[in-house]
Amino acid sequence: MASVALTNLDPASRAAARGWSDLTIRNMFIIPTLVFLIVFNIFPLIYSLGYSFTNFAANRSEPWQFVGLQNYRELLSDDHIWSNFVITAKYVIVSVAGQMIVGFGLALLLNRSFPMKGLITTLLLLPMMMSAAVVGLFWQLLYSPSWGPINYVFGLGDFAWLSNPDSALYAVAITDIWMWSPFVMLLSLAGLSAVPQHLYEAAAIDRASWWYTFTRITLPLVSPILLIALIFRTMEAFKTFDIAYTMTTQPTAELIAIRLYKQAFQQWDTGKSCALAYIVLIMVLAITNLYVKYLNKVKER
Amino acid sequence: MAAVRTSSEVALNRVAIAAVLIATLIFLAPIYWIASTAFKPKELAVSVPPTVLFEPEVTPFVRLFTKRVQMQKTVDPQVYEAAPWWEKRIYDGGERVLKVGKDVQLSQYPDRFMNSLIVAVISTVLAVGMGTFTGYGFSRFKVAGEADLLFFILSTRMLPPVVVAIPMFLMYRAVGLNDSHIGLIILYVAFNLSFSVWLMKGFMDEIPKEYEEAALVDGYTRMQAFFKIVLPEAATGIAATAVFCFITAWNEYAFALIMTNRRAQTAPPFIPSQIGSGLPDWTTIAAGTFLFLLPVAIFTFLLRNHLLRGVTFGAIRK
């Protein structure tokens, strides 16, 4: 009843006589945002969909030609692009798995009361708030084979993390794990604190083992929120550009977003890069859809 | 009933807390390294073994803000004596500060830092302003296809920046918005708007409708009720949303790299471009990084109770 009263004022009432109607206000509040997003997000995408069927090159003035599906055909049969996708998949698996393990592990450790817990939790969250490009750059010094503290601490001599083709991708993934484990930790902590305490007490009375309690009580109750963290991080890792781009130039660490950037803004192969952008976009939207679905599910609980 | 604690549980608890402390030290080590390198003498930044304890100095910050050249011969002692303390530090390093007449020539860093500030502040104000209205609209009124519209709004946030940047670059080039503050601000508003709508809708949902209903009964119009009752109630939410938007815009790299190169370039693409070839001066880079990260570190502490909400687009509140 309350919401009906809010949206349909009695036209004879004093409130309705003064000022705008609720319908006007609603439209005034919502429509500008929608228009803005359509103009600056959707319209550009339609624009680039058009270019994806052409051989347009933004750095040349000669007229472009319509080439149909040729860009898409070439991209999908290009071994180079496939290897970029394989690199990206490797990166996503390693870094997201690392973040889930480290983040959930940290949350399990933090899920108890101790002095200065709030301060320590906030300190642990610092990495994810910082600029990936700028911090990533600084990891070059940390990884440095000649004077990096990492090699010194672990006694790795002059192991060149970022210029060794075999390790560059994993070095970037380690930095990404450092940055984003706190994200998984934050979500896991919320999930853990929502587990009703009486379940643990009941398990303790039954003398259930730690493992039993963990797999039968903790994990099932935390898993929806873990799934959200997993999907969100997968989506973000798939899009990774800045951290990898500022850390290394190794071709073995060329993620799909970096490939796309180079194709569009270094080789100026605009038409083809629009096509590649669409392939990437469809993949991202698929994961986004999944993410929002689960987000709404958890929200309803 | 308080759980009965056995001695093994107490021991386990202690081990866990010790592990947390060690993990915290590991996580903070890279940040400590940035902060400490910013205050190191040049040669200690690349020493073997790495230097942990040293006498801090602010010379890297002097280098960060000035234009300098290598000196061919040693400085005239009289000139040295007359120089202010910070200029002496530069002479000590075998360089001299470039000047026009008596004015010190500043490096590009303060400009880039200001660009970051301008773009982040203006885009935050716009995104949060629009997000507050739209969040209220979605929270209080019936909207046909609300779930689909909200999904559409959120999905714009998920678009990979490089994908959006290609057509935007072409469009900006056509209308002359490349390398301009306005161009970057529009992109950041578009990027942050969806986030701000989702977060503000969550905050608005928490303000009881009865407050406005009471105001409407008292003869307020809907707009008066919104500005005088709802907005003050939503102040904390608006502030938290604003800080999140600011941090995102402040940290953004891909759009800034593609859309700006000089006039409107922000700090994130500028700082890595300083590496150049040869041996980089890590102390100066660290000083720039340190100043750049400082606001975000402060904001993280101010935001600590809203972080969970922010990173889940308002879905998980606690």
TrEMBL record, chain A:
Pfam families: BPD_transp_1. InterPro entries: MalF_N, MetI-like, MetI-like_sf. The chain crosses the membrane at residues 28-47, 91-110, 122-142, 168-189, 210-232, 275-292. It is found in: Cell membrane. Residues 85-291 form the ABC transmembrane type-1 domain. It comes from the Bacteria. Keywords: Cell membrane, Membrane, Transmembrane, Transmembrane helix, Transport. Its main location: membrane. It is a multi-pass membrane protein. Belongs to the binding-protein-dependent transport system permease family. PANTHER family: BLR7065 PROTEIN (PTHR43005), SPERMIDINE_PUTRESCINE TRANSPORT SYSTEM PERMEASE PROTEIN (PTHR43005:SF1). This is Sugar ABC transporter permease. The lineage of its organism: Bacteria, Pseudomonadati, Pseudomonadota, Alphaproteobacteria, Hyphomicrobiales.
